[in-house]
Design a protein that fits this description.
The protein has about 240 residues and is of the alpha/beta class. It is built from eight helices and ten strands. About 35% of the residues are buried. The structure holds S-adenosylmethionine.
Amino acid sequence: MINKSLVKKRFSKSLKTYDDNAFVQKQMAEKLVDFLPKKEFNSILEIGCATGLLTKELKSKISFSEFSANDIVPEAESYIKKIMPTAQFILGDIEEINLDKKYDLIISNACLQWCSNIENTILKLKNSLNEGGILVVSVFGKNNLKELNEIFDFPVKTVDISKLPKDTLVVEETINMFFDSPIDVLRHIKLTGANAIKEMKLTKSILKDFEKKYYEKFAQKNRVQLTYNPIYLVISC
Ligand SMILES: C[S@@+](CC[C@H](N)C(=O)[O-])C[C@H]1O[C@@H](n2cnc3c(N)ncnc32)[C@H](O)[C@@H]1O
């Protein structure tokens, strides 16, 4: 189960530093928009909008009439309203809230891994599409942050493709990032909110042990590696 109060706490704190550190999530937002058909959408719903990295991509590349954005963190509303003053903000946990209308496009970047049941959430979103609508989502695969998982038992929440509709388009990729030190890796994780995965007390001795193991296993020339493993899903109605 996901600790939703930890998710809210970590993201409301990291929104201020998110855009300057979420390099991979920004690349994912750009790629996600490339999966969309070139047409005008009547209504769009974005799930887990945060500071609006994906919202900005949609605004500049896609034509639409109505835009709604959801997030579990109330602070996200002001970021979205600055990008798109006419957007409707829907506050709440996407696993809990009732979506009272249907949309032509539902889109979500790097958010649904924070759901306790990703597959059920995807099916719930599919059911909120109009006829001919499209659901486009990015989540992460089993190798995401594998270095942290190996050292800290940092669990990775991934999607079980076999539980999704048979005609789901699935595209997976690996992105390697490099940092000057293992401590810079931890700082990066904190500044993007990904430390909501697990509450950890990092004492001096735990940190020392972490640095030693990380250098031993994941050093490349003078830098250390961190792996991201995005998965893009496209489901049509
Ligand atoms: C990694 S950020 C992704 C932000 C944005 N989609 C982007 O493209 O950069 C994840 C966002 O999902 C939100 N979130 C996490 N769990 C959620 C849930 N159950 N319902 C709605 N939003 C959620 C977080 O508050 C956070 O703003």
